[in-house]
Write a structure and sequence with these properties.
This protein has 163 residues and is an alpha+beta fold. It folds into 2 domains: 92 residues, no CATH class; 53 residues. It contains 8 helices and 7 strands, in the order αβααββββαββαααα. The longest helix has 13 residues. About 3% of the residues have low confidence.
C-alpha cells in the first residue's frame, strides 16, 4: 500500500496522496493526466460519490473541495471528461463561460435523452440547484426550471417531491 501512495504522490505531487483512501482507491491516473473515477457514475458518465445513505455528490466537486478548501458555484472541466476528478483540470467560472466552452469544443447538446431528463428530475428532487444541474447536461438553468415546472418534458412520468 505504501508503494501505491508513493506512486500517487510522484504522479501528481502530493495532491492525490492527500485525499482520503476511500476516494484515492477509486482514481486511476491516465496518461493524459486525468484522474479517471472508477466508482459509481451517473447515466451521463459523471463521476458520483456516495457520502451517506441515499446521498450522493458529484465526485470532482468533492475532490476539489477537499484539496482546495473552497468550492466555486461552477467548476469547468478543461479536459471535457466527466469522469475526471483531477482538480488541475478544473477551473472556476460562470454558466456562460461553461456554455461557451461547450460551444467552442462542439459539445453543445440540442436535445436531452429520456435518461438525462430522469436524472435531472432526480437531482431536482434531491434539492440540487438548477444552476448546478444545468452545466452538467449542457443546458441552461432555465431549461432545468422548465423541466421542474413541467413546461418541458411534461410527458415524462414524474411526481416531484414536495418541499
Amino acid at each position: 500500500m505504501a508503494d501505491l501512495k508513493a506512486l500517487f504522490a510522484k504522479a501528481k505531487g502530493d495532491q492525490l496522496a492527500r485525499l482520503p483512501e476511500d476516494i484515492r482507491r477509486r482514481v486511476k491516473v491516465a496518461p493524459n493526466g486525468c484522474w479517471i473515477w472508477q466508482g459509481k457514475k451517473a447515466g451521463s458518465g459523471q463521476a458520483m460519490l456516495y457520502v451517506g445513505e441515499n446521498k450522493s455528490v458529484i465526485a470532482y466537486r468533492r475532490v476539489f473541495l477537499l484539496l482546495n478548501g473552497h468550492l466555486p458555484a461552477i467548476l469547468r472541466h478543461t479536459c471535457d471528461d466527466k469522469a475526471c476528478v483531477n482538480p488541475g483540470h478544473l477551473m472556476a467560472g460562470t454558466i456562460r463561460d461553461n456554455n461557451a466552452d461547450a460551444s467552442r469544443r462542439g459539445l453543445v447538446k440540442r436535445k436531452l435523452t429520456d435518461r438525462e431528463v430522469r436524472e435531472i428530475m432526480h437531482l431536482i428532487d434531491r434539492g440540487d440547484r438548477m444552476v448546478d444541474i444545468a452545466p452538467h447536461y449542457g443546458v441552461t438553468p432555465e431549461l432545468v426550471g422548465q423541466i421542474k415546472s413541467r413546461k418541458r418534458y411534461a410527458w415524462m412520468p414524474w411526481s416531484p417531491k414536495k418541499p
